[in-house]
Design a protein that fits this description.
heterodimer; A: alpha+beta; 20-stranded antiparallel sheet; elongated; B: alpha+beta; six-stranded antiparallel sheet; 6 strands
């Protein structure tokens, strides 16, 4: 047997068990970077909790892509260099080996700071183990990032630009200018607002733009003709994007916008927080589920208008329906269950009694209307015991029913008889499993379990085939762009701006486009489900996008 | 079986060969997930029948597993619908532009018709030392699908042939109202004239109005498309 094949299973077990331990902490453990002066403002920051762990996560994705022959070809270092200008994976491995050869965590911070008006500094800080300067200076200069020891000071050459660097406090700092490294204050760079911190605890990467600085002032001016947007921006503490990648290849990306203005608007948008998730309405067979909690300002308006119409309506039975509808709590949901015609919709009420009252009054009103217009009998039947009636409606006596029933505090309509029975078992008899108890990964379950203003879940039926239609157009585009690239004079781009590696952007991004499409198609085909949730949490608007792979 | 073994060994080799210090391997996948990826692999290798059969097998044998659900979702997904959505988006973006260009083309019809009348009037004037008072006298005949109604005077008009009398009356009434609103008074005098062209290009309340005079000055008085 090939030696590599024999070693592989052992390596698999060893590395995987070690990896799991490294993730056990489960918090965003960035320790902070000293050196920010009182006069400086943190404009934007990129935090990587541990570059080593992030690299391990990348490897999980690479292993999945490497299942296919074209995926392995795509991941080859020469193709990565052709596509991105550098072999990103190789560069990260090299950096990790130089920064922390003993295997310590390697937090990374990229910060943009402002000082007064218009003076901006950039600093990249990487946590390193002792003896870093010597290691970096001695490292062979064979990659896109090279280090040289210049009389004790470290110089870094990245993409054609030479940047000053130094090591202090266990951090290798690379500055955009010498001034960017002269940070002698006492504040730390961890100062993210509370709402952002709450939503970044489990994330591996955080990118945040903070308010109150030069960027915020610029945006404020840009929205001069829009007072509402201006108010949101001026009172914004931060907007952050976060990424969490789990061992099971689930990923959660979040966008968190933290502003005092959100807090003021929250009662109009969200109202009273729900205690249960809409996903709990549906059984585990649901392949698609969408729900929206109608904002209180809209719901109250609609109900008030309906109530104002009451005196105009002569029929008492219809008046009863409007009265019963006043108890609606505004959450509407829809689900499909993986078979043609198997769907259900639901409207939530304040309690179970209110939902049943709505069903009964609706049935009564419908019967009155049908009788009045002498519609043939049999289009509506009311079944079940008194107090838990179920209404069955059909557009023609020969066609099957759609059932409307009160299940818990929801009024549910479903086309399939079996579906309403299962949902009834779930809600009224507490039998069976809800969508939240289905085969979900923890990341997806977390996103769906939180009651949200907007929530969506889908087991994706996309298998990447449509991307195959674009292989040939992509090849044609690639060839055309390469022709165009050859027309650009070699010295047309400023090397200080673009560097040697980026001197020819078209050649990087347009290399073997059909292969990139094929890998993208495989990536999409490997996705099992997506979950989306939008909610307001105190002063923050939080959008979560999660996906898991098979 | 041989193929599955090859895939597993290949994946292990790739994982082993590409391994870097501290890097992790994918956690083991359930058997049905492997079955899904084998089916997908068959598709990439040009055997979509095997892919389809693999999906059917998963959906039937293990419908409640993740792979079974994914297979069911794929089998239900209609690529045609997706394509329709893509085409719909493209059409949605293209149709307004196409309509705008089409309407611009209609406007060109007014310019052409009025230029023809101007040429005919100039030729007539050169011969008779006065301008013609009817389109017939000028020898001008509207095209069969002409959108614009031309007015030499409020009563003397040229309209596409084939319209019935009722339609002519309705259209002419609307066009005359548009001329009044725009304060355009088509007329023919001994040494000067003003001919107008009127049409409703997009079905709204506003009508497109153009004029040309004896000097050849073409004026777009009211634009229906703005």
């Amino acid at each position: 047997m090939n030696l590599r094949a024999a070693i592989a299973p052992m390596a698999f077990l060893l590395v995987f068990s070690g990896f799991s331990d490294a993730r056990a902490a489960g918090v965003f453990a960035f320790e902070g970077l000293p050196g920010l002066a009182e006069t400086q403002h943190l404009e934007a920051v990129l935090l990587i909790e541990d570059l080593r762990e992030l690299r391990a996560k990348m490897e999980l994705q690479r292993n999945l892509v490497a299942r296919t022959a074209f995926g392995r070809d795509y991941l080859k270092a020469e193709h990565q260099r052709a596509m991105l200008g550098v072999d990103m994976y190789g560069e990260i491995d090299r950096l990790l080996a130089l920064a922390a050869p003993k295997g310590a965590k390697v937090p990374v911070v990229a910060a943009v700071l402002s000082e007064g008006e218009g003076v901006m500094h950039g600093q990249l800080a990487i946590k390193v183990e002792d003896g870093a300067i010597e290691r970096f200076a001695k490292a062979p200069n064979e990659s896109a990032i090279t280090f040289t020891n210049d009389n004790g000071a470290l110089k870094v050459t990245m993409y054609g630009a030479t940047l000053p660097a130094k090591v202090d406090g266990g951090w290798l700092r690379i500055g955009s200018t010498d001034a960017a490294l002269a940070l002698a204050g006492t504040k730390t760079l961890t100062a993210l607002p509370d709402a952002i911190t709450r939503w970044t605890k489990d994330s591996h990467v955080v990118l945040a733009v903070l308010g109150g600085g030069v960027v915020s002032a610029g945006l404020n001016k840009a929205f001069a003709d829009n007072p509402m947007a201006q108010n949101l921006v001026s009172e914004a503490r931060a907007i952050a994007m976060t990424v969490r990648i789990d061992d099971d290849l689930s990923q959660v990306a979040r966008v968190v916008f933290d502003s005092e203005a959100v807090k003021q608007m929250a009662p109009m948008i969200k109202g009273q927080a729900k205690t249960t998730s809409a996903a709990a309405t549906w059984d585990a067979e649901a392949l698609t589920a969408v729900s929206i909690a109608v904002p209180p300002m809209l719901l109250t308006g609609a109900l008030t208008i309906a109530q104002m119409q009451m005196p105009e309506i002569a029929d008492p039975s219809v008046q009863e329906v409007i009265k019963a509808a006043q108890a609606v709590d505004g959450r509407l949901s829809l689900a499909t269950f993986g078979a043609p015609g198997d769907w259900a919709i639901a409207a939530d009420f304040i309690d179970a009694a209110a939902a049943q009252t709505f069903v009964n009054s609706g049935a009564n009103a419908l019967k009155t209307v049908l009788d009045r217009y002498a519609v043939e009998p049999g289009l509506m039947r009311v079944e079940g015991k008194s107090g838990s009636e179920v209404v069955k409606l059909r557009p023609d006596v020969t066609l099957p029913d759609t059932t409307v029933a009160a299940l818990g505090n929801s009024v549910v309509a479903a086309r399939q008889r079996v579906r309403i029975e299962r949902l009834s078992d779930l809600r009224n008899a507490k039998k069976g499993k809800s969508l939240l108890d289905g085969p979900l990964t923890p990341a997806i379950r977390e996103v769906l379990a939180r009651p949200s203003i907007l929530q969506a879940y889908v087991v994706t039926g996309y298998d990447g085939t449509t991307l195959e239609w674009f292989y040939w157009p992509a090849k044609m585009a690639e060839v055309t762009l390469k022709q165009m690239r050859d027309l650009i004079p070699k010295d047309a781009l400023d090397p200080n701006l673009y560097g040697a590696a980026f001197a020819n952007p078209a050649s990087m991004t347009m290399s073997r486009l059909p292969l990139t499409l094929a890998v993208a198609g495989f990536g999409l085909a490997s996705v099992y489900d997506y979950a989306v949730a939008l909610d307001v949490d105190d002063s923050a608007v939080v959008l979560q996008l999660a996906g898991s792979q098979l | 079986m041989k193929r599955s073994l090859t895939i597993v060994i290949t994946a292990m080799l790739a994982a082993c060969g590409g391994k870097k210090p501290g890097a992790a391997s994918s956690p083991p996948r359930p058997a049905e997930s492997k079955q899904y990826y084998e089916a997908l692999d068959a598709r990439y290798n040009g055997d979509s029948r095997a892919y389809y059969d693999g999906l059917l097998e998963l959906a039937h044998d293990d419908p409640d597993s993740r792979a079974g659900r994914k297979a069911r979702a794929i089998l239900q997904a209609d690529d045609g619908l997706l394509m329709l959505a893509v085409l719909g988006s493209v059409a949605g973006a293209a149709i307004p532009n196409f309509t705008r260009y089409q309407n611009k083309a209609k406007e060109a019809e007014a310019r052409t018709a009025l230029q023809m009348v101007y040429t005919a009037q100039s030729a007539y004037f050169a011969e008779k030392k006065r301008y013609c008072r009817t389109f017939k006298e000028c020898g001008y005949e509207p095209l069969p699908d002409q959108k614009y109604i031309l007015f030499m005077t409020p009563k003397e008009m040229a309209l596409a042939p084939g319209s019935d009398d009722l339609m002519r009356t309705i259209v002419a009434t609307e066009a005359r109202e548009a001329l009044l609103t725009a304060n355009v008074k088509p007329r023919v005098e001994k040494k000067k004239f003003l001919v107008a062209a009127v049409a409703n290009l997009d079905g709204d309340d506003i009508m497109d109005v153009w004029t040309i005079d004896e000097t050849g000055n073409l004026v777009h008085v009211v634009s229906d498309l703005e």
